[in-house]
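idk why but the lab printer keeps eating my pages so im just putting this in chat instead. protein + phosphoric acid mono(formamide)ester:
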Amino acid sequence: MQVKTPRHLLTLLDLTPAELQHITSRATELKRMHRAGEIYEPLKNKVLGMIFEKSSTRTRVSFEAGIAQLGGSAIFLSPRDTQLGRGEPIEDSAKVLSRMCDIIMIRTFGHDIVENFSANSRVPVINALTDDFHPCQLLADMQTYQEHRGSIKGKTVVWVGDGNNMCHSYINAAKQFDFNLVVNCPEGFEPMAELMEANKDRVKIIRDTKEAAKGAHLLVTDVWASMGQEEEQKEREKVFKSYQVSPAVMDLADKDALFMHCLPAHRGEEISHDMLDDPRSVVWDEAENRLHAQKALMEFLLSA
Ligand code: CP
Ligand code: NVA
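predcted complex ->
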């Protein structure tokens, strides 16, 4: 049987800027249709496989609800009750699951795992978070910025905190959506050196949060300790103590600045207790847009 080479989303670099723009704009249209109660089922009978090796609220529910709304269905797969947890090789799992499912999303630890999986898959594979990247969150974030403020092209985004998977995806987004990025991180917690080097024309590090925030159009932060780093929590609390976004920090930014956080958030750590209630925070729209952005993504990948 002739099998078409599938398109994947492992990082934002797997799609062109035009394709990413199409997806974020399409997401806004799908949101309008959903809110209007329009039934739209282009993925009828399609099955989404969902592999979760880490916890999730937003990603699981948005993918599962999303495929259902598009007429398809989802199978939730955790290592606890599949052979993945008993050491069946990723390559074998990919070969088998991609003969049964039409599209597969994976949340796991090493980025090499999704690379290996996709290399052995007959169907599109979506990275639903690895230790290194979280591209689906960026689709929602870019959609959210566009809906509130229009194009992000040429704007300045400030990332406050750890140079982690979300920060890496912001660096890729800076390239693909054409904005400037300031990374405000403590020493020793910088993003991957090769990503910084590849994007040095548009990404820079500023260590002081107040300095970094000046004039920003979007401030973004994330937890100090990501999933898999639970044992570092106490140590990280000391290092990241001053890396907190608050309404006072937002006051230093552009007058139209927005605040985003992929959630879950830790009030009193990376954000002040009142940050999510500030009118500049759009975190609930951002979370909702995971649903619409991933519907647009699945529609795109299954028609590519
Ligand atoms: N932002 C995000 O990916 O949330 P979950 O971990 O709840 O999926
Ligand atoms: N950086 C966080 C993001 C969670 C959505 C983590 O990897 O745990």
